[in-house]
Each structure stands twice: as structure tokens, then as C-alpha cells.
Amino acid sequence: MASLCFFEWLVLLALALTLGPAAVETRRSLALELLVEAEERWGAGLPGDLPELEPECRRLLAAFAESSAELTKCLGRRARPVRLCQTCHLQYRHLLAQYDNIARAVGNSSESHNCAKSILTSDRLQIVVTLSEFFNETWETANCANCLKNGSEGLSNSTVVFLDLFNKSLTCFEDNLQGQTTYLSPNNYTEVCRNCNETYRMLNDLYNNLQRMNRQGGESGHSAHLCIDVEDAMNITRKLWSRTFNCSLPCSDTVPVIAVSSFILFLPIVFYLSSFLHSKQKKRILILPKRIQSNASLVNIQEKYS
Ligand SMILES: *[C@@H]1O[C@H](CO)[C@@H](O)[C@H](O)[C@H]1NC(C)=O
Ligand SMILES: *[C@@H]1O[C@H](CO)[C@@H](O)[C@H](O)[C@H]1NC(C)=O
Ligand SMILES: *[C@@H]1O[C@H](CO)[C@@H](O)[C@H](O)[C@H]1NC(C)=O
Ligand SMILES: *[C@@H]1O[C@H](CO)[C@@H](O)[C@H](O)[C@H]1NC(C)=O
Ligand SMILES: *[C@@H]1O[C@H](CO)[C@@H](O)[C@H](O)[C@H]1NC(C)=O
Ligand SMILES: *[C@@H]1O[C@H](CO)[C@@H](O)[C@H](O)[C@H]1NC(C)=O
Ligand SMILES: *[C@@H]1O[C@H](CO)[C@@H](O)[C@H](O)[C@H]1NC(C)=O
Ligand SMILES: *[C@@H]1O[C@H](CO)[C@@H](O)[C@H](O)[C@H]1NC(C)=O
Ligand SMILES: *[C@@H]1O[C@H](CO)[C@@H](O)[C@H](O)[C@H]1NC(C)=O
């Protein structure tokens, strides 16, 4: 061993002596090369456990972060009174698109940089998946699909009509309350009740129709709720109308109401009539033996007391 080391040392010494500064130069450049190679591997070379994302993936992640911030801002701002679906559907679609951009590369071997693997599945937190799931759940709980068009590019026609009527109702309320709040006496809402009953009734009818249609479509996967914007608007208006203004509800569909209530009213009469007729029929059958019996007892009594 020692002799080999000694031999090696001798060779090196001879080399150093013969080549001199050239050897030092080559050694230095070798070290530099190694360093550069290590840096490159750190940056991009090794697959899998890299501390840095590839630039393309970093761009996708930044885009997702941006759109999730936009959506969060919109949801928070439109929380009360609820205007989530009508205001934030564009932001939601952007977020879905960004998530899709990241997720699309799953199992795509032709893609050189697999962003889905490194962004969506590389750690136990998986924050991008968690965020996306949260937005999906929120959107589903709000039933926003219910007031958007099929392709969800904008509000559905019925929703537009409903929101327009809602706006008209609120405007009518405001107009008829003008100059009332300044008085100390309790507000007189008779004007509101009289002048806004038309719009209110239309709004109420439309809402009931939408609900009915939604329930009929309920078997095909839809839930029983309308979208939260519509529900909340109706909730607010109904509470104002009946609790704050104490207006009576104008009967919406009078014909079926009258039909049903008159049918219920006549039910006892029908019942008594039918039972009366029924018993009359029975009496006719029983009439003979009864009269004989009663006559006999009458005779008995008369005999007793005479
Ligand atoms: C795989 O990636 C290529 C290149 O980006 C793309 O054209 C193709 O649509 C992807 N395939 C799938 C199934 O996502
Ligand atoms: C959220 O919903 C969209 C569309 O329905 C779907 O493509 C996406 O995979 C969902 N996100 C998660 C994390 O499930
Ligand atoms: C929604 O659109 C898809 C195609 O974009 C169509 O297959 C589906 O039948 C439509 N659904 C309704 C309820 O219109
Ligand atoms: C919704 O309204 C638009 C324009 O007002 C009309 O072109 C479209 O046919 C309507 N859609 C439905 C489903 O009524
Ligand atoms: C109703 O809509 C008009 C025009 O879009 C708007 O200026 C007004 O503020 C709305 N009224 C209410 C009560 O939201
Ligand atoms: C409310 O105002 C109407 C007219 O606008 C009036 O006829 C009515 O007597 C008033 N009611 C009360 C309680 O002040
Ligand atoms: C609204 O109220 C007015 C006055 O009370 C009444 O004449 C009218 O018939 C009502 N309209 C409806 C739709 O109930
Ligand atoms: C209506 O409002 C009440 C109280 O303000 C609330 O408890 C209820 O959940 C609301 N209903 C809907 C359908 O939003
Ligand atoms: C609402 O109106 C009815 C009569 O229409 C009255 O008996 C009741 O006291 C009123 N309630 C409130 C809270 O004003």
C-alpha cells in the first residue's frame, strides 16, 4: 500500500515537474466543470425531487394562484347580499381552466415537463387540489349551475328575468318609502302595499314557477335548491313584504286555490249527503220488521198503563 502511494506520489511529482503550470490549470478547469454540472443537476437535470419547479410549471402555478385570488376576492365581496353566481362565474371558469392546464399533463408521457405530478401529487398537503376542491364544493353548494346557461357562459334567461323583477320590486319599495323615514311616527306602509303588489306578485309567481320546474328536473341529478342568488333575493323580498311592511300576500294563482278550497269546503256536505242516502237505502230494507216491533212494544205499554 505504502509503496503504491509512494509510487503515485513520485509520478505526480514527475508530472508536476515536467508539465508545471499546465497541470494546475487542467485541474482547476476540471473542478469548475464539476461545479457547473452539479448546479445544472440541482436546477433541472434530476427528475422528481427537485427543489425548483420547471419554468413552465412555475408559470402554470402562478396563473392558478392568480385566478384563485381573483375568485376568492369576488366571493368575499359578493357574500352579502348574495351575488356570487351572477358576479363570479367568469372567475370560476378561469380557475377551472387553470386547474385543467395543470392537471391535463397527468400520465401524458409525451409532455416533457410533467407539471401535474410535481404540483398536484408531490406532497401530503396538495394545496392546489385542496383549493380547487374548496371552490368546486362552494360552487356546488351555492347551486350556481342552476342559474347559469347550460355551457355556463352567462346567466340563464329565467335568472335574468327574475333579477330584473327583483330590481324593479326593490326600486318600487324605495320609491314608495321616500320621505317617510324622517317622521318620528311609525312608518305608514299602505302606499308600498298598494303600489308594489303587482311587481311583488309577479316576482313571487316567477320564483314559485322556477322552484316547481327545478323540482321536476330534480330526478335528473339536479338538487332541489335554486341558486343562492335567487333564493336570497326572494328571501329578502318576502321578509320585507310580509314582516317589515306587513302587507298581505296577494293570492298568486287564485283559480286553483279557489277550486281546491271549495272542494275541501264541500267535502263534509258530500260526506253527509252520501251517508244520508246510504242510510235511507238501508232503512227501506229494515222498515218493515222495525215498525212491527215498535207497534208491538207500543201495544205492550198501552196495555200496562191502561
Ligand atoms: C399530451 O401533451 C401533448 C403536448 O402538450 C398534447 O398535445 C396532448 O393533447 C396531451 N395529451 C393528453 C391526453 O392530455
Ligand atoms: C372541480 O370541478 C371541475 C369541473 O367539474 C373538475 O374538472 C375538477 O377536476 C374539479 N376539481 C377537483 C379538485 O376535483
Ligand atoms: C347541455 O349541453 C350539452 C352539450 O354542450 C348537451 O349534451 C346537453 O344535452 C345540454 N343539456 C341541457 C339540459 O340543455
Ligand atoms: C334566451 O334569450 C336569448 C336572447 O334574448 C335567446 O336568443 C335564447 O333563445 C333564449 N334562450 C332560451 C332557452 O329561451
Ligand atoms: C336596478 O338596476 C338599475 C340599472 O341596472 C340600477 O341603477 C339600480 O341601482 C338597480 N336598483 C336596485 C335597487 O338594485
Ligand atoms: C297611511 O297613509 C294613507 C294614505 O297614504 C292613509 O289613508 C292612512 O290613513 C294612513 N294610515 C296611518 C295608520 O297613518
Ligand atoms: C293591487 O292593489 C290594488 C289596490 O289595493 C288593487 O286594486 C289591485 O287589484 C291589486 N293588484 C293585485 C295584482 O293584487
Ligand atoms: C332566509 O333568511 C333566514 C333569516 O334571515 C335564514 O335563516 C334562511 O336560511 C334564509 N333562507 C334561505 C333559503 O336563504
Ligand atoms: C299587521 O297587520 C295586521 C292587520 O292587517 C295587524 O293586525 C297586525 O298587528 C300588524 N302587525 C304588525 C307587526 O304591524
UniProtKB/TrEMBL annotation:
UniProt keyword Transmembrane, yes or no: yes
Signal peptide: 1-16
PANTHER family the UniProt entry points to: OSTEOPETROSIS ASSOCIATED TRANSMEMBRANE PROTEIN 1, OSTEOPETROSIS-ASSOCIATED TRANSMEMBRANE PROTEIN 1
Protein name: OSTM1 protein
InterPro entries given in the database record: Osteopetrosis-assoc_TM_1
Organism listed in the record: Bucco capensis
Superkingdom assignment: Eukaryota
Gene Ontology CC annotation, any one: cytosol
